[in-house]
Write a structure and sequence with these properties.
Elements: E1 2-6, H1 10-22, E2 29-37, H2 46-64, E3 68-76, H3 79-90, E4 94-98, E5 102-103, E6 109-110, H4 113-121, E7 125-129
Parallel strand pairs: 1-2, 1-4, 2-3, 4-7
Antiparallel strand pairs: 5-6
């Protein structure tokens, strides 16, 4: 089995690693942790920091998934094109990715454009890991406003 894991941020990576750690992969699974650096918006100097980040994720994955061969990849392209390219060239069986959430003008929360594009365009399974809507560790208790008053 060949798995592609595109990561953007540390928070995405933590959620994705939690999913991957609990998924039962067959022996000889190949996992590629991947980051796209958009050449239009990000400087090439980021590559060193990104490689350090990907290597840390690789070590974490290898510590709890003994049956997998884990590699890292950085491509200079927009994320959608880079992911589609890697799925095709690596013949990936599954993409496991997070998404950036945003609120539409009507108040509904929606998945980001990258995850929607990938789910619609690649020929393999796509698992989109959604962050919790409420993260108590990010908000001090006294700052919470009541949801319901009776």
């Amino acid at each position: 089995m060949k798995i592609l894991i595109p990561v953007e941020t540390e928070s995405d990576a933590k959620l994705i690693l939690d999913f991957v750690a609990n998924y039962h992969f067959p022996p000889n699974t190949k996992i590629d942790i991947f980051h796209a650096i958009d050449p239009l918006h990000q400087a090439q100097e980021r590559e060193i920091g990104v490689q350090v980040f990907l290597n840390q994720l690789k070590k974490r994955l290898q510590s709890f998934i003994k049956v997998a061969d884990v590699t890292t990849t950085i491509l200079y392209d927009c994320p959608v094109n880079a992911i589609i390219h890697l799925v095709a060239t690596r013949k990936a069986d599954m993409v496991v990715m997070g998404y950036s959430s945003r609120t539409h003008h009507d108040g509904n929360l929606a998945a980001g454009s990258v995850s929607r594009a990938i789910a619609a365009q690649v020929p393999c399974s796509v698992v989109i890991i959604r962050p919790p809507l409420y993260q108590p560790s990010l908000v001090a208790e006294e700052e919470l406003e009541p949801v319901f008053t009776g």
